[in-house]
Amino acid sequence: MVSAPIPADVPDALVASYGRDDAGRAWLAGLPRLIAETLERWELRPDGPSGNGMASIVVPVIRPDGTRAVLKLQPVSDNNAGTVLGLRTWPATA
């Protein structure tokens, strides 16, 4: 299977982490579209440059009510399936 090329705006650390197999390359190729669709669906406005690590991309955003937040995206795996629960229960800080 030939995967789509990885867009130039995907961070190098993510390409190094996920670019080794077809599933990872497909996720990377769709990442710019995924970010745009998620921002639109949740009515979020970008609020500064994205950050990233080896496993995820984090986009600072403004929610529709004006509060600041972050949008974190990464493919779901056995290693991170509990991340959502952890983020939901982590206490909010000012």
What do you see in this structure?
The protein has 94 residues and is α+β, with helices and mostly antiparallel strands. It has one domain. Helices cover 36% and strands 17% of the residues. It is built from three helices and four strands. It has helices spanning 12-18, 22-41, 83-89, and strands at residues 45-46, 51-52, 57-62, 68-73. Strands 1, 2, 3 and 4 form a four-stranded antiparallel β-sheet that branches. A hairpin with a 5-residue loop joins β3 (57-62) and β4. α1 (12-18) crosses α2 (22-41). The chain is globular and about 40 Å long.
Overview in brief:
This protein is α+β, with helices and mostly antiparallel strands and 94 residues long.
Q: What is the number of strand segments?
A: 4
Largest sheet: 4 strands, antiparallel
Helix content: 25-40%
Uncertain stretches? none
Number of domains: 1
- State the shape: globular
The ordered H/E elements are HHEEEEH
Cα distance, first to last residue? Answer: 47 Å
SS class = alpha+beta
Average pLDDT figure: 84
- The Rg value, from CA coordinates, equals 14 Å
Oligomeric state, counting identical vs distinct chains: single chain
Number of alpha- plus pi-helical segments:
3
